[in-house]
Amino acid sequence: MKNLLILLSFVTLMTSCAIFAQRDEFRLGMSENQFLRRNPQAVISKLDGDTKIYRVQRDERFYVLATFVNAELTDVEEREITPMWQRENQPPQN
Known about the structure:
By secondary structure, the protein is of the alpha+beta class. It has helices at residues 2-16, 32-38, 84-89, and strands at residues 43-48, 51-57, 62-69, 72-80. It has a domain at 28-83.
């Protein structure tokens, strides 16, 4: 009985702790500062007036483009990097 009480109090403590709660990596409406704190590897991809687009590399095949307008996240888009063999077969664009 004593072990069960200890186990239940430990489980309650762990589930109520905010440290273990999963945070959203991207959330529409989040501030630019929050985004940069959660994604320190983000680099600016494009600047256009009040619009900034950051690029976050997921892995070797995928990256995310996060668009900020007036320092607020308005769009998140995940893209796949084109493989080298596919780039070589495409005709040049003029």
